[in-house]
Amino acid sequence: MASELLANVMSPEAEIRSASQRGPAPSSSKMAGRLDTLENKTIYLIDNGFGGGSEFMLQLQKWFAKHMPSVTTIARRKTGQVFADDTTDLWDEIKEKGHAVVYGVAG
Length: 107
Known about the structure:
CATH architecture of the domain at 37-107: 3-Layer(aba) Sandwich
Number of strands: 3
Structural class: alpha/beta
Helix content: 25-40%
C-alpha cells in the first residue's frame, strides 16, 4: 500500500481527482470605500509574518510620523501563520478602532 501511494504521488502521470469540478461560486464582498482623507485617522499597519514585513511596516510608520503627523499608526503582527489566522481578535480591534489597514507582504 505504501509503495503504491508513493508511486502515485511521485509519478508525473499521477491522476488528479476531485469530488466535484463544479461547485458553488465563492462568495465575494466589496472592498471598503476609499477615505476622503487620512488626516486624524487611525491606520493599522499589519505584518503577516512573511520575511521583511515588519521592517517595512516600521519604515512606513516613521514616514507617517514625519510627513503626516495627524495620522495615528499602529503597527501589529497578525497572529497565526502567514496565510491563516488563529483568532479574530486583531480584525475585531481594527473594525472597532481603525479607519484603514495597510496589509503587508515582503520578501
